[in-house]
Amino acid sequence: MMHIIKKNKFLLLLGIVALLLPLFVHSKFHLNTLILLLLFATIAGAWNILGGYGGQLSLGHTIFFGLGAYTSSLLYLNYGTSPWIGLIAAAAISIAAGIFIGWPTFRLKGPYFTLATIAFAEVIRLLCLYWRDLTKGSMGINIRFEPGLSNLIFREYSSYYYFALVLFLISLAIVYWVDRTRVGYYLKAIREDEDSAETLGINVTKYKMIAMVISAGLTGVAGVLYAQFMLFFEPESVFNLNFSIEIALIAIVGGMGTVYGPLLGAAIIVPLNEILRSSFPALSGMNYFIYGIVLVLIVSFMPNGLMPVLKRIPKKFKSRKKVQVSGSRKKTAS
Amino acid sequence: MKKFLMFLMAAMLIVLTACGGKEAGGGDSDTLEIGALFPLSGDLALLGEESFRGAELAVEEINKNGGIDGKKVKLVKGDATDADAAQAEANRLVNQENIKAIVGSFSSSISFAASEVAERNSVLYWELGAVSDSITDRKYKYVLRTNPPASYFSKVHVDFINDVVAEKLGKNVKDIKVAITHEDSSYGTTIAEEAKKLAEKEGINVVSVQGYSAGTNDLSSVVLNLKKAAPDVLIAVSYMNDAILLTRQSAELGFKVPVFLGSGGGHTMADFQEAVGDKADGIFDVDFPQYSINREFTPGMDEFLKMYKDKYSKDPRSGHSLSNYMGMKVVLDVLAEVGEVDPDKLKDAALKYKAEAGKTSTGWGVEFNPENGQNTKSEPYVHQWINGELITVWPKKVSLEEPQISNK
Amino acid sequence: MTLLQTLISGLLLGGIYSLISMGLNLILGVVRIINFAHGELLMIAMYISFLFYSTMGLDPYVSAILVIACLFLLGIITQRFLIQPILDTPASTKIFATLGLSIALQNLALMTLSADHFSVRTSYQSDVINIGELAISIPRLIAFIVAISVAVLLYLFLKKTMTGKAIRAVAMQRQAAYLMGVNVKKIYLLAFGIGSALVGLAGAMLMPIYSVYPTLGTTFVLIAFVVVVLGGMGSMFGAFFGGLIIGLVEALSGVLLDTGLKEAVYFAIFILVLLFRPSGIFSLGKGAEEVGLK
Amino acid sequence: MIIQVKEVAKQFGGLRAVNNVSFDVNSKEILGIIGPNGAGKTTLFNLISGSLPVTSGTVTFNGEDITSQKPFVICKKGIGRTYQVVKPFGGITVLENVMVGAFNKASSTKEAREYALEILKKVGLDKKKDQIGNSLTIADKKRLEVAKALATQPKLLLLDEVMAGLNPSEVKEMLPIIRGLRESGITIIIIEHIMEVIMSVCDRIVVIHHGEKIAEGTPKEIANNEEVIKAYFGEEVSHA
């Protein structure tokens, strides 16, 4: 039991710091980056349950993200239902979609599963563009900026930050629960060797489905946060292969099949994106050229992500790190 | 494990401080900073960059003539490849670089997303090129637009059919069959839908409307449907890739239409003419002003062309640079009046700013509708490819040649 | 009548899709890697073909040999330096490595060659053979014929020559081939090289039909996957017939259904085939489940 | 009688890998299955454990017909198996490997971890519990196979050549483990080529040749059964 208490003491510390951050960080641009960071960490965490733990590499998670955003926004715009209810509806629709897609594709293995998820995402994107009277097609969805708790629109960025933080902590708790219980162990077994897992009494399809349901539901809910934060989105921004790829990348760079991997991945990729986007104004294309090269290097030299690498840092080096940490924290309190 | 998480915490904080470092960037006294948000990479890079060049030239021009009250004007660039990037970049410009006015954006979804952020932070968003009506329909307090929206395009489509096509084809307007094809992004869809609405209101028979995915690499089915519909007029709203494809495959499959009304996204560029050669001849292009135009009506266009050639050692790829240039000059005129980059003062000064048609480099007048910030005096013209050159043919006041329609 | 013309246009489009996918079929079949940069290989091939055209005035069909050689080299370099080091890593690494390459190549092209659309103007480009009402465009017909001949040549090469047999052996069972003395590393280099060379040929054939621009690859890469998996991974004629099917499906659904849905239709068909015959229509009927590329 | 295999057959296209094999196993008994390579022994295990569907015939376990049921259902009913070609969960630790099996009956992670540690002690892998699956030697991987199957608390354990590839001393270490299983009340069917193990451990032996049962009986009977010798050493030897 000692181990668990010692760990939570530290998590508490991490939580407190996360809670106080908005007081330190005033500029909206930083808050915007932090909100996106938490959003992507949440979704990458959700993806990690299916992809990292279960080994089912889906590149179709944009389906649930888009369905979540569209469900809550269309309910809000057409019937005035508050996005708080939209959160539940979004989770329900995404879970249903998860089951609908998972059921047939779980029989497939490896890249066949991945290609099937890409195909599903493309079909849904094209349908969303096609059914203009339902989804307003490529005109996109615009939610009027009427701040208010009931319509989940806030004037202050810090409120969105806390909303994103709560969502992230929920997803972290779920991943923590998965990692600690039968579900996590079974998923890892399925990832390592499906046949051998089945003969040990694991209903492979059922546990893949459990991972899909959790993963889809969380991603759908995160879609609602995205819609309420951006207040404008179109099929191209929410049903997009690059989005599915980015969240998978964040989980992979961070460390697949680990609890904190996605958070670490997001803490690197999201700011990197922001910085790269505004650098090299002179030479258009250079920023994403570097992004591509960095992608190749990270994935080739750290196939299991950063987490295992950091764990292997020798104790001596880490203790020196501690001294530096206290020093750097004072600096940010400007 | 525990020690590691301390390390993670440190990593996150350090990254944040790195972003914070640039805080001091904005607000030096001797420069007037204006944000510039365009798609400079990705699928829209071609016309995104072309549009940005227009704004850049206008700023260089005014800085050469001593800037504004001695202060240099500086364009702070942002590369917004899509709506998400636009939101993030707008946020960076507003909150990080303390920008108080932003010009942009060529693409409607970028303009929409970025102006959303600008409005929330009461920062002026001055659109110079994106056409979707919804940008100004929102009636936001801090959104202005100098270029014509999609509904003005469809007005030109319909007026051109009424005034020119009906007479040239010797048909009553009611009997003219119109088909519409458009790529399915916000650009194509808005113009196509506006054209359909207005045409039906005017009693023009719209026989088919076909949308297709912008990234498609085959339009044979679109062309074959058109052959079946056999329209007199085809309104085609496309980007470059599908514009070339449509023209080439129409020729291959023997689809001919007396009046082919192309659009700014694809049919105006030299690349299009180079790709399809003489098949371009006869194609109309409803778009921002081009360069073979009645120069009396567009003073300042020659200087612009010279500046463009000197800086980029090539002729402009399309009219987008010119319209962004003209729009930027209006912004700079208003800024000169106000003297500082203050959103509210700039907005009021802009609403008072008036210019006659025929007195600007695009020939557009300038008068902003106080309700939605749309320049009501701007209008697209009709140009036509004649012997490999894009010449303005309608309306009369700007045309150099008569529209050539043969009833073959 | 339009139906007959749709079939012809569909077949000709299918010829283009098979031409593009045959290279991927070899790479996916042998090296077992989802190469997201396949579209960029095509883009580079077309840029090289255009450079020969604009600098030396060489017609794309004439410079095809040179483009093939360049791409063969590029394929070997990619395999040797990017793919080889990560051969034994999980599938996710391979996907993201090729993805990083794809993003880098697109933006390298944007930086060096700008975002302009370059196209070739040749005499035969818009010639059409007319049989009564039907029209068959020359460049598309040539692409179709080249696709057939490449399929046959590839078939003969893989079936008859020793190297071909070695490549097929590696495709079926890498370890077994390795034990039998096949230099698997060399075969991978060759497979990736030939695969890229085929893309070079496709690039040369496509130059008169399409204009080239930095993000051209993105419009073709997903189709290439659909064609290869639909046709049956690794089977020589699979990619060829897979391409024809997708071309026909796209043309027919555009005319009969709606032009906005034609891509959605062939993705839907792709999903159905994946579910009921994951090893593809024409593959040798290998056990569906274990044709995984772990 | 804990398990009854009746007229079980398996057809792969033209090849009849298993041809109407029948035998019974009584509770707490150790049944050996021997036969030359390719006789269909492993296929028979795959049929019993549900990894492969049966072409014909039935398998009844504790009176219940479990023919061609899903492997995880059969495992839950109490049949554990090891694989001839070892299939460890390579990326996770030895302890986690066994815990996956333990979860079959355990209700909480703690219970699963404790039971897994117990099993690891039994098979002598407790010192290597934190090693990653792939890093083990063949012998340890074989032990891990047994441990994983044992963790599911089976009533019947199918051991498929757990001794193959082990050196004599490792074989000696494995024997007491197997005998220990019987004491804890588990019935065992063991496929093995090492006669010394079969003769010393098994109560009864079934001999499979070309997919058919050619003999059944005590180790002594089988040792000098004409048919068996002929099957193993070919025609000439048996006449000498």
From TrEMBL, chain C:
It is a multi-pass membrane protein. It is found in: Cell membrane. Pfam families: BPD_transp_2. The chain crosses the membrane at residues 6-28, 35-55, 61-83, 95-114, 134-158, 187-213, 219-252, 264-284. Signal peptide: none annotated. CDD domains: TM_PBP1_LivH_like (cd06582). Keywords: Amino-acid transport, Cell membrane, Membrane, Transmembrane, Transmembrane helix, Transport. InterPro entries: ABC_transp_permease (IPR001851), BCAA_transport_permease (IPR052157). GO terms for biological process: amino acid transport. GO terms for molecular function: transmembrane transporter activity. Coiled coil: none annotated. GO terms for cellular component: plasma membrane. Belongs to the binding-protein-dependent transport system permease family. LivHM subfamily. This is Branched-chain amino acid ABC transporter permease. It comes from Peribacillus glennii.
UniProtKB/TrEMBL annotation, chain D:
It comes from the Bacteria. Residues 3-235 form the ABC transporter domain. InterPro entries: AAA+_ATPase (IPR003593), ABC_AA/LPS_Transport (IPR051120), ABC_transporter-like_ATP-bd (IPR003439), BCA_ABC_TP_C (IPR032823), P-loop_NTPase (IPR027417). GO terms for molecular function: ATP binding; ATP hydrolysis activity; L-isoleucine transmembrane transporter activity; L-phenylalanine transmembrane transporter activity; L-valine transmembrane transporter activity. The keyword Transmembrane helix does not apply. SMART domains: AAA. One of its GO terms (biological process) is D-alanine transmembrane transport. GO terms for cellular component: plasma membrane. Gene3D superfamilies: P-loop containing nucleotide triphosphate hydrolases. SUPFAM superfamilies: P-loop containing nucleoside triphosphate hydrolases. Keywords: ATP-binding, Nucleotide-binding, Transport. This is ABC transporter ATP-binding protein. The lineage of its organism: Bacteria, Bacillati, Bacillota, Bacilli, Bacillales.
